[in-house]
Amino acid sequence: MAKRLKALDAVLAELEKLPAIGPKSARRIAFHLLKQPASRAQRLAAALTALHEKIRPCSRCFNLAEDVLCDICSDSGRESTICVVEDVGDIMALENTGEYHGLYHVLGGVIAPLDGIGPDDLKIRELLERIRLENPRDVVLATGFTVEGEATAMYLTRLLKPMDVKVYRLAYGLPVGSTLEHADEATVVRALEGKIALN
């Protein structure tokens, strides 16, 4: 039996922990990196290290940022609407459409009791505080059309009802059971255009 290569095994083990990377994909990536000059692997390692050293959550909306505020929160030209999303990937999906020009708030997930995630595990208190302080024109609930995403949107709607803010939900241009991050841009545009009022 051939002796195991510890360095290769270590890389394979780490790659397999990434989403959508199984053993075969991990091997392809590792062998691809082995064929590259050492400088390319060093640049990748440096970029991954910088990711954790330089990127942090925006103190206002919890998007990714290199400063205290993200580029979107720092942009004084953005409209006074807050779009509530599950994760940072959802912001990228909405921004890629070029149709939404407001602000965001990243919840950090959805209410999922079976997974042990309740309202206190999300950035809901921070959202309510932002709405009190910033008095946005509208709030758009852009959680996914999963059972958990719908439950989170309904929960937020109840919390926002007594506040003086118009609440919208993305239209069902997105298939039920999907998330924004995996939708094509045309579908996201239709969902934004067809948002519906919840109060």
Structure notes:
With about 200 residues, this protein is of the alpha/beta class. It has 2 domains: about 50 residues, Helicase, Ruva Protein, domain 3 (Orthogonal Bundle), CATH 1.10.8; about 130 residues, Dna Topoisomerase Vi A Subunit, Chain: A, domain 2 (3-Layer(aba) Sandwich), CATH 3.40.1360. Helix 1 crosses helix 2 and helix 5 crosses helix 8. The mean pLDDT is about 90.
Low-confidence stretches: none
Radius of gyration, rounded? 20 Å
Mass-distribution shape? elongated
Structural class: alpha/beta
Distance between the terminal alpha carbons, to the nearest Å? 68 Å
Number of helices: 8
Task: Find the count of extended strands (DSSP E, 2+ residues).
Answer: 7
Q: What would the CATH topology of the largest domain be?
A: Dna Topoisomerase Vi A Subunit, Chain: A, domain 2
CATH class category of the largest domain: Alpha Beta
Task: Characterize this entry briefly.
By secondary structure, the chain is of the alpha/beta class.
Keywords:
alpha/beta; 199 residues; two-stranded antiparallel ribbon; 2 domains; single chain; 7 strands; Helicase, Ruva Protein, domain 3; Dna Topoisomerase Vi A Subunit, Chain: A, domain 2; 5-stranded mixed beta sheet
